[in-house]
Design goal:
Blueprint lengths: L26 E8 L7 E7 L1 H11 L6 E2 L2 E3 L2 E4 L2 E2 L7 E6 L3 H12 L5
Antiparallel strand pairs: 1-2, 2-7, 3-6, 4-5
């Protein structure tokens, strides 16, 4: 689980690399799940294909506590979650105190950059 993302609109201090880390075409699926984990109502689950799984692991294998990983679509930061451990299995769960409309909007924004 990638923890509490309520500060997703406060990303002006992030420094991004220019090169593409993971092309969104390597997302196999993205959907919402209901949960009661840490008081969250919803989590967004992103599942990567084999290439995406390897790339997300390479990005996070040396992760120290509370490093941010930005999801950028068409040059705009959609969300920048804090990662607190390496992501080895290609599955990410993003948790925040979103309502149903907000979680659907986040999923739609991420999907807008996915070309199948």
């Amino acid at each position: 689980m990638i923890e509490d993302l309520d500060n997703r609109y406060n990303n002006e201090n992030l420094q991004l690399k220019r090169e593409l880390a993971i092309d969104l075409k390597h997302i196999k699926s993205i959907h919402k799940k209901t949960t009661n984990y840490s008081g969250f109502n919803y989590v967004i689950e992103i599942i990567f294909d084999a290439i995406g799984t390897q790339k997300i692991y390479e990005l996070t294998k040396n992760t120290e506590s509370d490093q941010q990983l930005a999801i950028v679509v068409f040059g705009e930061i959609i969300i920048a979650p804090f990662v607190n451990k390496p992501i080895e299995n290609g599955n990410i769960e993003l948790g925040g105190s979103w309502n149903l409309m907000e979680v659907n909007q986040l999923i739609s924004s991420i999907k807008s950059g996915v070309i199948k």
